[in-house]
């Protein structure tokens, strides 16, 4: 199902001069959707409110360009990885460095905070994945298996697994408690740049330089579907909070996908170029895109975007079976159980 591309859902844009040199990394807070963090070749980490021109806070400490950033769930901590392989964690409330983490031998490509515990995962050009406890110095565990740079890391919503995407064309799923790989997903024919867990179901999405988006079943450990070659690779992805669809940020558009069966529900034309991250706030999708020393913010009104086949007037292929929409809250696979306590450290 593909609807006509629309531009009316794009409501506004804003551009800020974020750094004195090139912007090398940007990330949005997923809880509020309004916190923007930028990292630059000037070795600084700057904090902004989306669509506000003034920098709230500037964090220093790194001595080489910032290559990766992440914000924790409650938006109280920020982690930044640099070109030298060093990692620094800041406490935003105290406006100070909480921890400096050393151990990688090359540039940091990816970072993620554990959803409940005080853990950070890092992936590097040195092909290693490290798990850190921000309460103390030193690496808690190292996960080895990738043969090229680790481009993206994501913890599962229940905090039990870690997914990694790498230039070696694979996606790996790691059991944090056991400290070992659970499964390796193959099928991409190019570097895998993005991986994202479904917010509720045992489902994983991955995007690659091969210009495809793949969906993986985490119970059966097999591919669910594949969005075939697009004109350009997807740059970032985000599931809708209720899990009904996946948003894909491309160089010239926002695309809305379903996966059973694979289909494109809608296309919104957005000339956002190197869009680097997406978040959702009050039925608005926010995308941020760096260009030299500036960062532009784009806002898409999701109330005007088609997210499923249940919307009246949807167009379907003649060969496509008519499937009634699933009841709200239903699932085709197992649902994550959120623990009430932090995750335990991996077994050695």
From TrEMBL:
Record bears the keyword Cell cycle: yes
Keyword line: Cell cycle, Cell division, Cytoplasm, Cytoskeleton, Microtubule, Mitosis, Repeat, WD repeat
Pfam family, one: WD40
Record Gene3D superfamilies: YVTN repeat-like/Quinoprotein amine dehydrogenase
Major localization class: cytoplasm
BP GO terms, sorted: cell division; microtubule depolymerization
One Gene Ontology cellular component: katanin complex
Location relative to the cell: Cytoplasm, Cytoskeleton, Spindle
Record InterPro entries: WD40/YVTN_repeat-like_dom_sf, WD40_PAC1, WD40_repeat_CS, WD40_repeat_dom_sf, WD40_rpt
WD repeats: 16-58, 59-100, 101-142, 143-184, 185-226
Region listing for Disordered, in residue ranges: 308-331
Its job: Participates in a complex which severs microtubules in an ATP-dependent manner. May act to target the enzymatic subunit of this complex to sites of action such as the centrosome. Microtubule severing may promote rapid reorganization of cellular microtubule arrays and the release of microtubules from the centrosome following nucleation.
Protein name: KTNB1 protein
Source species of the chain: Psilopogon haemacephalus (coppersmith barbet)
Name of the gene encoding the protein in the UniProt record: Katnb1
């Amino acid at each position: 199902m593909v609807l006509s591309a629309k531009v009316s859902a794009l409501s506004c844009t804003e551009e800020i001069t974020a750094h004195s040199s090139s912007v090398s990394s940007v990330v949005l807070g997923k809880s509020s959707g309004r916190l923007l963090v930028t990292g630059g070749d000037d070795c600084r980490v700057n904090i902004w409110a989306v669509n506000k021109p003034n920098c709230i806070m500037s964090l220093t400490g790194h001595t080489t360009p910032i290559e990766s950033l992440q914000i924790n769930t409650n938006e109280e901590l920020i982690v930044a990885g640099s070109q030298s392989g060093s990692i620094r964690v800041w406490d935003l409330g105290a406006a100070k460095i909480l921890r400096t983490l050393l151990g990688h031998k090359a540039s940091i490509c990816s970072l993620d905070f554990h959803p409940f515990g005080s853990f950070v995962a890092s992936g590097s050009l040195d092909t290693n994945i490290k798990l850190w406890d921000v309460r103390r110095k030193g690496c808690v565990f190292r996960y080895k298996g990738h043969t090229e740079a680790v481009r993206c890391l994501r913890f599962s919503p229940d905090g039990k697994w870690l997914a990694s995407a790498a230039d070696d064309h694979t996606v790996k799923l790691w059991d944090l408690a056991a400290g070992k790989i659970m499964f390796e997903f193959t099928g991409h024919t190019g570097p895998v740049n993005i991986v994202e867990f479904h917010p509720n179901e045992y489902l994983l999405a991955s995007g690659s330089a091969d210009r495809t988006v793949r969906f993986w079943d985490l119970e059966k450990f097999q591919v669910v579907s594949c969005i075939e070659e697009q004109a350009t690779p997807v740059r970032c992805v985000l599931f809708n909070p209720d899990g009904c669809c996946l948003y894909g940020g491309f160089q010239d558009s926002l695309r809305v996908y379903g996966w059973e069966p694979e289909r494109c529900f809608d296309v919104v034309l957005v000339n956002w170029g190197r869009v680097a991250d997406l978040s959702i706030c009050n039925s608005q999708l926010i995308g941020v895109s760096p260009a030299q020393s500036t960062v532009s913010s784009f806002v898409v009104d999701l109330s005007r975007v088609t997210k499923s086949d249940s919307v009246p007037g949807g167009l379907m292929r003649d060969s496509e079976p008519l499937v009634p929409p699933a009841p709200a809250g239903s699932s085709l696979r197992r649902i994550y159980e959120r623990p009430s306590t932090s995750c335990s450290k991996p077994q050695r």
